[in-house]
Amino acid sequence: MNHAHADNERRELLEQIRAIEFMTIDLNLYLNTHPNDRRALNEYNYYTRQLQALRREYEMRYGPLTNFGYSLSQYPWAWINEPWPWEEDHYMEGC
Amino acid sequence: MNYRYPRYCWPRAPYMYYDYPMRKGLELAEAYIPYQQYTTSLSPMEALRAGTMFPELVRPYEKKGCEGGKADESCSR
After folding, report:
1. Could you tell me if residue B2 is inside a domain?
2. Spatial distance between the Cα atoms of B57 and A59, rounded to a whole number of angstroms
3. Residue A83 has what DSSP assignment?
4. Which residues form the domain of B44?
5. Does any CB of chain A come closer than 8 Å to the CB of residue B44?
6. B-interface mutation test, from A11, A30, A41, most B Cβ less than 10 A away
7. Tens-place pLDDT, residues A26-75
8. How many domains does chain B have?
9. Is the residue at B4 inside a domain?
């Protein structure tokens, strides 16, 4: 597996996390004003579980997505490994 | 003297605003919005692009005469 391919997979997984996380945000906002909407609540829980699974997968493969209190770290301290999740330039190299 | 707490002040009641607009026969603004009903949702990737998962709330920013929202000289004022 070459480097560009691995980077692509990493970026795709990150993009998927962003999209699923956005669904949880928007459903959260909707539920604030519609707390009895069972369908929206079910979808919120569905996407939240999916997000947790995706985050776990990303962090096992590529390192922590967040720090202090949210993500566990392997030895040595992994947060300072580049690239950080928001460093889009890294993934765009060679585009 | 104790400086630790701010001095207690009585709240100002509305009648103390002697020139409140109501007194001139005007009414305050009131806002009404329809209650949103959840019908259908965009896919997660579409929702991320559109900024909302609700199709009825999609409001793309589009300038007239600008292709793809690009700011060129023809559309900058």
Report:
1. no
2. 33
3. P
4. 33-59
5. yes
6. A30
7. 999 999 999 999 999 999 999 999 999 999 999 999 999 988 888 888 88
8. 1
9. no
Where do the domains of chain A lie? Answer: 3-92
Contact between B45 and A47 using a beta-carbon 8 Å cutoff: no
User: Cα–Cα distance between B76 and B74 in angstroms, integer?
Assistant: 6
The 10 Å CB-count burial string (b at 16+, else e) for A6-25 is ebeebeebbebbebbbbbbe
Position B43 pLDDT exceeds 70? yes
Q: Which of A18, A22, A37 sits opposite B38 (nearest CB)?
A: A37
Select from B38, B45, B53 the Cβ nearest to the Cβ of A39: B38
- Please compute the mean of the pLDDT values over residues B9-13 and round it to a whole number: 63
Can you tell me the ipTM of this complex?
A: 0.76
Hey, what long-range contacts does B46-52 have (CB within 8 A, 24 or more apart)?
Answer: B47/A19, B47/A22, B47/A23, B47/A26, B48/A18, B48/A19, B48/A22, B52/A26
Cβ of B54 and A26 within 8 Å?
yes
pTM higher than the cut 0.90: no
Going by pLDDT thresholds of 50, 70 and 90, the confidence category of residue A86 is confident
